[in-house]
Records
---
Amino acid sequence: MLRYLTAGESHGKCLIGILEGMPSGLKVDKGTINLELKRRQAGFGRGPRMAIESDTVAILSGLRKGITMGSPIALSIENKDASIDTLPVVTRPRPGHADLAGVIKYDRDDIRDILERASARETAMRVTIGAICKALLDEFGIRIGSHVVEIGGAADQKTMIKKAGKCAKIGETLGGICEITAAAVPIGLGSHVHYDRRLDTRIAGAMMSIQAIKGVEIGLGFAAARLTGSKVHDEIIFDRKNGFSRKTNNAGGLEGGITNGEPVVVRIAMKPIATLGKPLASVDIRTKQKIRAQVERHDVCAVHAASVVAEGVLAFEIASAMTEKFGGDSMKEMKRNFDGYIKQVKVF
Ligand code: EPS
């Protein structure tokens, strides 16, 4: 079983992560993690913070000479902007953010206590953890990739960039859709036997946990509801060399909560960033007077970043399912179990 925790505020000292359950004997390259962190910081529409930070990871435990030992891996990313104690009090909740519900639930009188942790800055640590999971998956030939499908309803890059530029000028923000794929995933990860062992359950939940994600589809997703069965389900074929496969992949690689050997395909919908340059109506939590919402430094669009984050999140869920199926103590044991299973599948 793989699990992780993160800690850290957007403008606190640093972001922290602990990844537990990685098998021993896996090579982890810090440079590769840092490249993933750089990818997360890129894309058009990002705010001024990205010019301040140059996210790099410090690996504090769990590795010796760059190789995992089976012990928990402790990670940190320093915040260059660590101004949390001097930042102004926030009393005007932003619609769309955790501000209002959070400040009431946790009984604070400064919304900053909420927004600092709710911020998507936390995703830098999830990308770090995802990068280590990608290293594990790489050992089994599994590859994760993603692309931005739409931004603000536009599907071509020129229009996306134009829209983002226009939104920046008028104090607006944009969301979008990303598609994340895992290729060469073996048949049989996850299980049909119980709700919480279904891999699609876990993937959907994990995707929804990414800040600002409001929808998740696997394969055809919502479009499948508008078609007849014969147009949706993927016909089965067999040949001696490749075994069983499908003519199409409308199921997005998952049937009954189990991977079916086709690529796992996930789409996520991100809402527009909640901080608007031209803020919406709100109410001051102290005076209860009508007022415009808080304007913080912000991104206009962070869909490219979400795409990279979602890769990391998918990598974790698939790596976790892999360790469950093939054992997670050492790479040697895991590979032996994997190879034996693949042989078994080939002669089925
Ligand atoms: C982010 C850092 C933040 C924002 C963004 C994500 O930096 P700051 O708040 O200092 O400008 O750019 O946060 C949000 C989208 C949010 O709603 O808080 C990052 O590192 O990704």
Note: The domain at 3-346 is CATH 3.60.150.10 (Chorismate synthase, AroC fold).
---
Amino acid sequence: MSTLKEFNFKNKKALIRVDFNVPLDENLQVTDDTRIQSAKNTIFKVLQDGGSCVLMSHLGRPKSNESEYSLKNIVPAVEDILGVEVLFANDCVGAEAAQMVKALKPGQVLLLENLRYYKEEKEGDTSFAQSLSEHGDIYVNDAFGTAHRAHASTSIIAQFFPKNKCFGFLLEQEIKSIDKVMKSGEKPVLAILGGAKVSSKITIIENILDKVDHLIVGGGMSFTFIKAQGGSIGDSICEDDKMDLALEILKSAKEKNVQLHLPVDVLAADDFSNSANTRVVDITSIPVNWQGLDCGPKTKAIFHEVVQQCKTILWNGPLGVFELDPFSTGTKALGDSISEATKNGAFSLVGGGDSVAAVKQFGFEQKVSYVSTGGGAMLESLEGKILPGIAAITNH
Ligand code: AMP
């Protein structure tokens, strides 16, 4: 793997693709700066070597050049986090940017305007990528959030740096964490998949069955499996057209010697709301007009035991409707179980969409080994896909 450590940036200009696609409020203030914080180590390494940084990123989904998507809005936040002045170029290509790059001195940081002001970015346009490539001596990709896209700045650009290209520290850590689960994890390996739909996780399940010893299927997804086996699930969420698939997964897990664990009881509700009446029932006999919105106490205990047995743990997707307080306890309990296992030496990776939100909401971030920064990129990695942003650095 070409990593940042292999390069000395003294008197070099590092062209770094970062993921500064941060959320902003109506006053254009950054509301969550995690992604900027995550790029810090890479930027500091270049500056400490005696190099300079040209940072490029996208922000949001601009249709043209709307000012609310200007990266200029985040300059104060980036300056606060880095503790250095951040220069800003009003365009990511063209004469002004070229001039500013040329004038850049060691120790300085320049942020380019939003890449997605140009449709060529998402189209993966080669000549646009070439124009961008002129801004640096060494190309560093540190944007895991867009690594699954073959965009100009994430993938196509790498061809203009046949030797001088590498992963930033964040992307390197993301790749290593995923590899730890998918390739080199200490056994027993456990994957926990929750969330709403089987259909959105099916490719992951199929890929992961070859890699794990245990698979927990929880949350809304589990009802398709329970109904397919003849259980009564009341009004619980279910994909009837995926029941055959669920049976195939159960069969395939057995053939592959993977222990597949489903919930055995649920907290059922008579309404999808905070004020619903609730009761704990067996998952195979949920009354009509009631729906399972969280896992029950027996399930929590069983899942806890499974988690404690395992040395490598991947978690994607909540075990209940964690956004509603009465139905968040299953997800919280799982977070506690994973935290305990991690404390006892297991490696735990949390990634992909809502589980990251849950982990942050309930304060488990520091108690697991690694929380992935990339939703879609993480999910595609778990599906076994080679991400274009990673392949572009790895392939020479
Ligand atoms: P996903 O994006 O597929 O990971 O799904 C996450 C969503 O699944 C969250 O918004 C949860 O509220 C939802 N979810 C989890 N468990 C259930 C359930 N038992 N019934 C309905 N929705 C659920």
Note: The chain is about 35% helix and 15% strand.
